Amino acid sequence: MNLKYLLLGLLITGLIAFVSSLPDPSLLGDRSLGKQIISNLAHVPAYALLTFLWLKTFDRTRNRSRFLMANALVLAGLVLFSISDEIHQSFIRAEQLLMLTWA
Predict the structure, then answer these.
(1) Which helix (H) or strand (E) holds 45?
(2) 17-62 per-position pLDDT tens digit
(3) Rg (Cα) of the chain, in Å, rounded?
(4) pLDDT given for residue 78 in this prediction
(5) Residue 28 sits in which domain range?
């Protein structure tokens, strides 16, 4: 296991989780379609970097079957993380909508 990539992977994972918990300004109507597209496309390099870091963390495995298993587990874990992040964001947006109705 590569400690440097592990720490960077944990940092980027935490950063993505933090950014996804920030309020969504599009609920206030100040985001154009272009800005929404750019925001959605920003997911691609963020998750590509995250995948690279986590795969590099377990890259030193010399046994081929363990290497393939580690990569499969990393990719499955990242898919679960991305799904849970989207679910988390839906709760943040729902909470914002509830607050806006009371304001």
Answers:
(1) helix 43-57
(2) 888 888 765 554 556 777 777 777 888 899 999 999 999 998 877 7
(3) 17
(4) 94
(5) 3-102
Distances (CA, A) of 43 to 2, 39, 101: 25, 7, 29
Domain count for the chain, please give it. Answer: 1
Residue (of 8, 4, 9) closest to 77 by Cα position: 9
Q: Calculate the average pLDDT of the chain.
A: 81
User: Could you give the CA distance from residue 58 to residue 50 in angstroms, rounded to a whole number?
Assistant: 13
Residue 68 has pLDDT above 60, yes or no: yes
Distance CA 5, CA 11 (A): 10
Q: Torsion-angle region of residue 14: left (phi > 0), alpha (psi -120 to 50) or beta?
A: alpha
